[in-house]
């Protein structure tokens, strides 16, 4: 089963680290938004947790709404919702956010894992807010169209 980013079977966030790690990336992702405001990396971490929570709850519409415009153009909302409703991902398998790597002030990579599957997504700071750009595997999975994706998932036994 192909997994990644928002198109995957994120179920629960059971074990999050106490906060984002900044990895070895460059740039000033920790710039404050205001005198007492959270850092940008903290904001990105919160958006990633929100995305995972929405997916864990099966709220496909709101999860998709956190994607970048580019990702939304690649996988239309109706297709994303149809696939994940017709072939619901497994539930109860926790995902863990392993850390954030600030690559520049407007881009942060988030690494995650679920059981023995790991992946990463990218968060972009656009128009004053962080947006999710799912990994290439997730976007590629939807390329053949919703009916083909559902069929492939059924054959793989990943519909629940």
State which percent range the strand residues make up.
15-25%
CATH architecture: Roll
Secondary-structure element order, as H and E? Answer: EHHHHEEEEHH
- Please report the distance between the alpha carbons of the first and last residues: 13 Å
Strand order of the biggest β-sheet: 1-2-3-4-5
Count helical runs. Answer: 6
The total beta strand count reads: 5
From the spread of the alpha carbons, the general shape counts as globular
CATH H-level superfamily: NTF2-like, domain 1
Alpha-carbon Rg, integer:
15 Å
Q: What count of structural domains?
A: 1
The average pLDDT score comes to: 78
Low-pLDDT stretches are 1-36
Main sheet properties: 5 strands, mixed
Helix content: 25-40%
Structural class label: alpha+beta
